[in-house]
Amino acid sequence: NLKYFKKVSIIFYCIYKNILYYYDIKLPPKERKTKEQIAAAAAASGRTKKKKWGKGKNKEKLNHAVFIDKSLHSKILECKNMKVITPSAIAEKYKVNLSVARAVINHLADKKLIAEVCVQSHSQKLYTKVA
């Protein structure tokens, strides 16, 4: 598309030049800048501030628990009643680390308190409550 656009624009430019030549139309001459104007423009351009790289969007640092104490353990055991159990859901709900959430899920699955739904996905395991 870009090559085609360049060809078309060159063709139109040639046609435009030929029309101007045919009708003997002269384009106005370009204004010549004096040395003072060129120096003033160069000095003004040097005053502009240089672009600074943006910091980007800073994510909020999460302060999730890495260890489970007794009170948190009793709360996390309530997750066996959830309809959909994933490591990210447990990590979000109980404010624990994702690796801790995976360990909790493996612990509950070993005790047969939750059942695995999808065995096909290797990256994200999906569990549900036992009926």
User: Which fold does the CATH topology of the domain at 70-129 refer to?
Assistant: Arc Repressor Mutant, subunit A
H and E order: HHHHHEE
Principal-axis shape equals: elongated
Overall residue-averaged pLDDT value:
83
Number of helices: 5
> What is the C-alpha radius of gyration, as a whole number of Å?
35 Å
| Helicity, as a percent range | 40-55%
Low-confidence spans = none
Straight-line N-to-C gap: 60 Å
- In total, the number of strands is 2
Examine the secondary-structure arrangement and name the CATH architecture of the domain at 70-129.
Orthogonal Bundle
Can you put this structure into words, describing what you see?
With 131 residues, the chain is mainly alpha-helical. The protein has a domain at 70-129: Orthogonal Bundle (Arc Repressor Mutant, subunit A). Helices cover 47% and strands 7% of the residues. The protein has 5 helices and 2 strands. A two-stranded antiparallel sheet has the order 1-2. Strand 1 (114-118) and strand 2 form a beta hairpin. The two termini are 60 Å apart.
Chart the SSEs and their pairings:
Blueprint: H1 2-22, H2 35-46, H3 70-76, H4 87-94, H5 98-110, E1 114-118, E2 126-129
Antiparallel strand pairs: 1-2
Helix pairs in contact: 4-5
Question: Keyphrases for this structure?
Answer:
Ribosomal_eS25, Arc Repressor Mutant, subunit A, elongated, mainly alpha, 40S ribosomal protein S25, two-stranded antiparallel ribbon, 131 residues, ribosomal protein
